[in-house]
């Protein structure tokens, strides 16, 4: 049975592509400041917590909804977002993270297509262009393979006849189950967030994306770990050798020359030092990561760093996100609250 949210993920990604393409949306700076100071349970904050690209897509749809233009598909997306606003916060965040993953996959695919086009042009082969500046995505009735993710732990909602259910994205990792898997320092550095369905219960801010298609072939499954703001600079320095500083609540990266890079609204660090992963993140995480497709490929290239681990650093002094790859056959949850197969061992996150 097809996930009822699949068409909405695809439609929002396509709408964003048609409306703004590669230039990005206008008026982001002021809107971002308002979103960062918005109520924690507002859709602005929820989509911002879901990811930079998810928030930008939400911003474009929401902004157009207040205009006088009748853009194609806008009415349906506006009604969906209105309905999403009536759902529990956990459901909203689930959708935001899923949308962010789909946006990332679409942009990655676009970049790979561009690279392929350049190669074909240089060898005087026929170039396949992206028509009208849109991304090569399926119609709203299908799902991008790279973004086939959902929350199997979330029950369908009966509000307004809606079914908010997402398969392939897993949340609500029990703190008790996670604790013995990680080094003490790293366990305490993980952000605690409310359980998606049990108000008052805290869980570890860990999200597992069981994706399909090219993303899975290259990276395997992917795990996001939210890190408390106090530890972002420490792990950025230890894993990537980058100095992150804060002034007046705004983060930036300092170059030896004195120049600064300021996230807008966030930036992603890659090329993590491989030998620091077991030391800082623990042997359980390293065991899964070292079996991922990208790790094996980089090992053959005799690399000392890896693109299979990234750190997303927001400009504001708030929590950051680590994303790690793990093997598809060992990095997959079989439903949170049920038996979990993670890094080759049976765990119970409940």
UniProtKB/TrEMBL annotation:
Feature: compositional bias, Polar residues: 145-161
Region of interest (Disordered), ranges: 107-161
Bias-annotated ranges (Low complexity): 134-144
Protein name: Uncharacterized protein
């Amino acid at each position: 049975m097809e996930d009822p949210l699949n068409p909405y993920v695809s439609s929002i990604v396509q709408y964003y592509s048609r409306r703004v393409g590669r230039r990005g949306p206008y008026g982001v700076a002021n809107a971002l400041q308002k979103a960062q100071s918005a109520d924690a349970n507002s859709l602005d904050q929820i989509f911002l917590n879901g990811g930079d690209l998810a928030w930008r897509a939400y911003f474009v749809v929401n902004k157009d909804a207040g205009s006088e233009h009748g853009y194609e598909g806008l009415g349906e997306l506006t009604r969906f977002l209105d309905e999403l606003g009536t759902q529990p916060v956990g459901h909203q965040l689930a959708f935001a993270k899923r949308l962010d993953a789909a946006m990332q996959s679409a942009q990655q695919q676009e970049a790979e297509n561009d690279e392929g086009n350049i190669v074909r042009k240089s060898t005087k082969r026929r170039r396949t262009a992206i028509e009208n500046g849109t991304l090569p995505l399926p119609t709203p009735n299908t799902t991008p393979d790279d973004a086939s993710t959902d929350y199997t732990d979330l029950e369908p909602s009966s509000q307004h006849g809606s079914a908010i259910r997402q398969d392939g994205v897993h949340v609500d990792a029990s703190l008790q189950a996670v604790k013995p898997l990680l080094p003490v320092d790293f366990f305490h550095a993980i952000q605690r967030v409310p359980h998606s369905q049990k108000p008052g219960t805290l869980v570890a801010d860990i999200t597992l994306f069981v994706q399909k298609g090219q993303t899975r072939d290259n990276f395997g499954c992917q795990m996001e770990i939210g890190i408390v703001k106090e530890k972002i600079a420490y792990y950025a320095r230890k894993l990537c050798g980058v100095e992150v500083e804060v002034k007046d609540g705004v983060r930036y990266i300092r170059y030896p020359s004195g120049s600064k890079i300021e996230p807008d609204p966030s930036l992603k660090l890659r090329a993590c030092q491989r030998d620091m992963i077991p030391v800082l993140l623990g042997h359980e995480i390293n065991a899964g990561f070292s079996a991922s497709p990208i790790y094996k490929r980089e090992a053959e290239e005799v690399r000392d760093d890896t693109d299979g681990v990234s750190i997303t650093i927001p400009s504001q002094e708030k929590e950051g996100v680590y994303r790690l790859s793990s093997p598809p056959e060992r990095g997959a949850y079989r439903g949170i609250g049920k038996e979990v197969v993670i890094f080759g061992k049976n765990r119970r996150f409940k």
